[in-house]
Amino acid sequence: MAMGRGHWCFYLLKRFDAQQVSILNFYIICLLLFAMNCSDDSLQSSSNSDDSVIYGCTDISSINFDSTATENDGSCIYCGLDTSFTSIQGGTAGYDITRSNNCSFVITGISGNKTILIKVNESGKELWNKKLGDVPGNHWGKSVRQTQDYGFIIGANQNTIIKTDSSGALEWFSKLSFSSNHFVEDVIETEDGDFIAVGGVGGDPIGGHNQKGQAFILKLSNGGNVQWVKRYGISDSPNDSFWGVVQSDDGGFVLAGEKLQSRNFEFYDHFWIMKTDQDGNMLWSHELGGNLWDEAKNIVKLSDDSYIVIGKKSLSSNNLNMWAIRISTDGQILWNTHHGNNNYETGQSVSLSENEEVIAVAGYSRTSSGAPFNYRIWGLDVNNGKLLWDKVHGGVQEDEAYGIATGYDNGYMVVGKSYSFGNDRVNWLIKTNSVGEISN
Prior knowledge:
The protein is mostly beta strands. The protein folds into 2 domains: 5-72, no CATH class; 85-432, Methylamine Dehydrogenase, Chain H (7 Propeller), CATH 2.130.10. Helix content is 9%, strand content 46%. It is built from 2 helices and 31 strands. The chain has helices at 5-15, 23-50; strands spanning 55-56, 71-72, 85-89, 93-99, 105-111, 114-120, 126-131, 143-146, 152-155, 157-158, 160-164, 170-175, 182-189, 195-201, 215-220, 226-232, 241-247, 253-260, 269-276, 282-288, 295-301, 307-316, 319-327, 333-339, 344-352, 358-366, 374-381, 387-393, 399-406, 412-418, 426-432. A 5-stranded antiparallel beta sheet has the order 10-13-14-15-16, with no helix packed on it. Strands 3-31-30-29 form a 4-stranded antiparallel beta sheet, with no helix packed on it. A hairpin with a 7-residue loop joins β26 and β27 (374-381). Mean pLDDT is 88; it is low at 1-21 and 38-49.
């Protein structure tokens, strides 16, 4: 019969008399035996519990979230590293960037004649890089958004829309089969889980055609089947196009684009903002600008269901400014501003700060006619459009920024194409602080 350590105390007391074992020593031995017994019980309990408990980070908002963990061990790491840097990413151009989960960002662009999708962390380190070569034909990523299932939807220009899972693996693609090429510039997921794509219809405008030259908006199911398509603008002409789209609170859509003024020789464009209902039927439209080239290139929605639209405004044939307008959901212009330095400045993409106090506009500019373009980032006050800061980044060759996303530290991730920082054209990513600066 096994004897517990507690019983050994009484055994010793009977076995030895007071002369052999002092009372003090006796108590010391008992305490040691008791401690050893407790330690064994604790180890056994721990061993039993380790069979059912998996320690790790259980917070899904953390960058090291462990889906297998059953108990949080305090190891969670959160977003917001205060970083600024420049880096060369895969491919030959980045056309858009979006925030993803776990402190990461996803870039889309082009390599060869195919769409690429690259995931990076806050420090610009590549997490994965996918070239979507299984999608037939020529295509390149012009826009990317994260979807409700943590995958990504890509507007891939020539007749192409691509859906991937959260790791960038292809789930499905849609190749639009209209009689003329439909160049897809932006795609969003709708509240009902379908998708809205916008862009412009290409092709030779000479000869008469009821689609060529028009801007389009179309709805697809989750799977890529076209449910409806609507086209607006002047048909049989150089392209009218929608470049960006957001969904309004009433289920309709607000679009940013460019629209031909009239069929004249110069083919001048207007800065175009249009709202439709949920079926793509026009509710109101603004065509703004003069007798030159004015374009609305991107749009962002605010929490009050108003919108900020950015692009370019022609002051003369050789003087273009970055243009920004805030507009209400019923089409009232709340403020209207433009900024530049008397040469060529164009806004291509816009991002809203988390507190909705600042919008950052990314694009490019040059110092004089014939000089190379550089990345340019403007910070504007959301309430009135006033310029808060304005920064230029780049080298001695052509550098053009196309996409921007607000960082987790309130700085900005900007992508585009550059000839200054490689042997040929490269996908150049920069990360700035909250006022557009890059630390040396």
